[in-house]
Design goal:
The protein is globular, with a radius of gyration of 13 Å. It has no helices and 11 strands. It has 124 residues and is mostly beta strands. The N and C termini lie far apart (40 Å).
Length: 124
């Protein structure tokens, strides 16, 4: 079992920044990929970013966030972070952390474990 807990969401003005955290516990180790997804009201859950948990040297990003969002890992705390800069109103959504065995993929149903989500609202 893998448990994921997101934190760090909130309200921010356009152009601002937020940092989300995903604390992972349980049987997460080599061979897992972690991903960030988001879901806005009335829309499907979409891929934001992903990284191989152990040994992954590069992250994968969706075109809509590339150059603005960055993932990082704190291995000592088993935490994956998502730094979000230059936020736009269209970034407003519930953000989820997810995990799966294997490589990073962009389809949400391919992920086995999910956190509860954290709300990000970008508005003036």
């Amino acid at each position: 079992q893998v448990q994921l807990v997101e934190s760090g969401g909130g309200l921010v003005q356009p152009g601002g920044s937020l940092r989300l955290s995903c604390a992972a516990s349980g049987r997460i180790a080599s061979g897992y990929a972690l991903g960030w997804f988001r879901q806005a009201p009335g829309k499907e859950r979409e891929f934001v970013a992903g990284v191989i948990w152990v040994g992954g040297t590069t992250s994968t990003y969706s075109d809509s966030v590339k150059g603005r969002f960055t993932t990082s890992r704190d291995s000592a705390k088993n935490t994956l972070r998502l730094q979000m800069n230059s936020l736009k109103p269209e970034d407003t959504a519930v953000y989820y952390c997810a995990a799966r065995r294997g490589i990073v993929v962009r389809r949400a149903p391919e992920y086995t474990y999910w956190g509860q989500g954290t709300q990000v609202t970008v508005s003036s």
